[in-house]
What we know:
The chain is mainly alpha-helical. The protein has 3 helices and no strands.
Amino acid sequence: MDKDKTSLARTILLATSVVGGLFAAVNGLSDTVRKTVGIYACFDEWQLGLAAVALVALSLWLFRLSRRRRSVLLRPEALRLERANPTHLIGRADDIA
């Protein structure tokens, strides 16, 4: 039980440090972008923050999509048609002849 609490605490600490690092990087990047690109100079702080949150949400959503399980065909031989098997060619008597 004590090991589970330690693992949970480490996971929470890691998550908060990653999120904090992302926000610090976005803040530093916003200052750089504002200085180098004139179009962003008219944006307020809250607009840049909203854009940063939207980018983080988009990246998390794309990460979640990439981690989804793919469909797996369990019996691929069930979809293979064989000319020698008459049950695979039902309704094609003229073609078989």
